[in-house]
């Protein structure tokens, strides 16, 4: 890629971003759009726009985001979101402080090096453009200038340790504060019990569980809820909900239009003879309710599983029970802390201990295979989508492609677009796989998927593109001389830097522009409210913003971080791009967290240890890259990069030892501080965990399950 | 080694064993020796010999050992000893059932194979004797007979899985039964607290600890004992004890001889002017007691450390507290279960969390280096101590050595003796290293040392001798053709088999003969009582038998097991030797456990998981050996040994998952079953933990600390 196409890519990205931001300012000020731009505030019962529309200027949102405190974020969006911002600002700190020292030192050193010019083969094939002169590729082998790059490696590493340590402490503090708060959270009074042993003769599951826990916790045991297999009752409940929705819709249509709507009684309400909708759905509902009640009774009686939620009268007892070994064998009476009611995955609870283990191993194998076999297409994509290759493969494109503007744009975007589209397909697959492991809570599933996604993107995108791109473009050279592969990699690393530079720029300008302007949700909202939504409920559904989507955001950030870190010394010019990515991300997402998204669960910062260890993993990958690259540059003291790798591993170990367990178990001093006086309403806590399909009709009748 | 020297070795060993056993029968029946042969019974207040001396026959001890039940062992020697016998009988089971199938099948197959005879180089240099014909070395390459050996590999593996699984379940049951017993054990009411944070201003350590635990356990917290640095008070106490002993001795001499003994007032009681001993030591004691009392007060006041024992009013609370995370950071308020009072290592308790980690890593490095550098001398020893090499190196020995009898004996024993002497030097070093890790209990230190010893012996002895012996004897061949190394190893494995066969035989006949006859303790006892002991206390000291010495017994057994397992298919003749070793071991040690040794601590079977995983490790080493050996035999289906290795690893993982945690933490259902009604005397439990140096004088005065 030459300088002009790089500049084109950058300016187009930036223009798109400016355009989207202006669009956002204009649209978010228009009345009627507040459901798209301020749903979180609306749902929390706040005035959508503080200060009214008049005082708005295009950067008001940014000012508000900047002036918001961590406590604002916690109150509007929870601890998990606050932790995500700690992650963003930590990475920002690492990159900013690295850049402050590295840019003024390393760029001039690279640009003014003359030692390489004499024997430079790369210039001949045009790979060394002006841009590449600013990278380490321009520094000659064995020169003393390499010492500066070497020192830079250590500087980046120590910045990372410093900020990560501070952040881990801070997040631990955030988690403790949340768990200490006197507010009653049902999950703090419950534990999840799995793998109850076979029923003794003449006992029901409930009796077995109650007697077991009452004997161990005679004073603090409160009651238990046996997990049932709700598949059948859920189906009926969904059917009922569907009819109720259709009934409400028909009634709304009747109220507005004055004529009673009709529908077909056959397939999808389209075929069959026309009937009066209100009567039809009322009849359906009347017929289905006894079925639901019967199914509820049958489920509660017959579908009891070997798992239960056990409730304690105080937090201490629950926190302690979740950490203790109860039976002699670990695969009997497994007790863990209870997830929030809203994120409990009922269908996973009955999976037995060793089946969970087997499932986990199977899923890991599947993921490893997928990573391996995705490598192949990715390498092909990055090889094919260079324009020169495309022309060779599809000669009829030559006419179009040779026009200068199109050529520049295509050259700038084609590979990156291919990559981004490709990565968008993955998350759902990984979520499904993680859920199949038998994990009991949604947040845990998302963390697991997020981890897999990270390995995926780092291994495939970063290593795949670097190695793959190099291999394909220079396969012939390798055939001639297999020993040249290290030299090739060393040469290809700086060459790929510009590719990743554009990738990062595209990601932040276009990605965050789209995120902020919410063009797609806006269009959907307006289309839906205009043509489809009839009832209030349907309208609300059409603008409900949902979750911010941790599971896919974090690994993408991690990928960017890995790329920026790995190139931070080789091509320091990438650092400002990384800084802008994370700064812009912080700003835009801060706005979205405060005003748009509604978190679908709260795990009190359990995501952090994963983020932390992945940042350290990126750091190690960076150090390994430098080890290899210094080696390729024939730097005599290459091996003194190794202590940095050892430091990183020790740092990871120390952090894990010191901090991790609190993210797994609740420390008793924290639980003790949060004791509730007087004891909370245990009936209410119990009812939080009842799934709607089991309580629905009873609640309708007397308000009490 | 040829057949005749093998037979010589075997018969001499056996004769020594018979001799020692007869000696034992004769000596143990003689009155006055009961303190050497029945100390455990005497200390437990039992009649030394049931049924009196008259009814003794030479095998009465064996009959008694065989008819003793596991409960006898538990009541006479505790759970730990019972677990050791479970280990012995498990290994015995594995080897016996392996032998039953393998010997009748594999030996004829090996002996009758003719395919190898034609191209046998090894015969020429005499390595293939009659004995070696019974080994797999005699089976030709690529023959179908290898299938039988292959099936044997799987048979041994499955026998191991079966017996190990049964044993783990059984030991878990033993441990549960012991922990459930209503007998009051102080360690079940206490936890060990380490890493208390820095003292807040104006609080003493005791106040800090009490207030912390009282706030978390308002109902079950009883009291705490702050750990002090007792170095100085211990020194004074030891000095006092020394003087008291000397005083008692002087008084005993006076009582017997009627003249007041004298001693020098200078160095060691030998130099200086002569003084009256009784007056002299009484004066010393009178002067030292005030110093001790002052030191006790100072210690309790000023030497308080950031560690404590915390006592709870019931077992459940203590069992639960030991498993819980108390503070947010793992390196603050570390709570673990309390060891027994007698095995608590006070001086290790104050070492801080991360210092412990660093010490542990440092010790591992030291051990790894020691293993590495011991490899060199061991390899030399095994090379030098073959007679041919000795003659070459020390030609003047030729005269002596060439006499047939001496030659045979030397050839039979020299290498084995060298090895055994060498291994005897290690345990103390390893115990010292393990103690330096900062481990709080003696049993844990011994387990850790035992683990190190295992790696030591397996890596050095087994691999060192096999590889080293081969390398030295055939260094020239390798120089000629480096690729021949695999063939060399394959050929050397069966050749080394006879070496190990003699090693095992020596070990069991002579080792267990000495163990049973207790010749050395007997001599020491008689010498001491005759010439040195004056007081009753000194006599008791002279016959006190001490511990059985787990830490060194188990790794030796493991080494034998590893050798026998690894050669079980290659040279099946080794199996009966293994069976005899473990059967004889079981029998002899059963006698010793019932009548001689007094366990110095009780860890309720915590040794088992270590034994278990090391047996599995031996099994894996065996499977790896077979993988290599089948490969060297050019067996086409060699790779189907790999599933066996995977089975072993999965088996180890499953066992670890299912059983291990109960050996680390007390399961609450077990603790709940053992609840004491009414609550025990907490003051008494507290006093158990006070070290004698801190309570000595107070107890003397009013019987109450």
From TrEMBL, chains A, B:
Coarse class of the protein's main subcellular location: membrane
InterPro entries, per database record: Csc1-like (IPR045122), CSC1/OSCA1-like_7TM (IPR003864), CSC1/OSCA1-like_cyt (IPR027815), CSC1/OSCA1-like_N (IPR032880)
Keywords for the protein's UniProt record, in alphabetical order: Calcium, Ion channel, Ion transport, Membrane, Transmembrane, Transmembrane helix, Transport
CSC1/OSCA1-like cytosolic domain span: 188-348
Residues annotated as domain CSC1/OSCA1-like N-terminal transmembrane: 5-166
A Pfam family reported for this protein in Swiss-Prot or TrEMBL: PHM7_cyt
Cell wall biogenesis/degradation listed as a keyword: no
KW Transmembrane helix (keyword) present: yes
Signal peptide boundaries: none
Protein name, as recorded: CSC1-like protein ERD4
Species annotation: Trapa natans (Water chestnut)
Lineage: Eukaryota, Viridiplantae, Streptophyta, Embryophyta, Tracheophyta
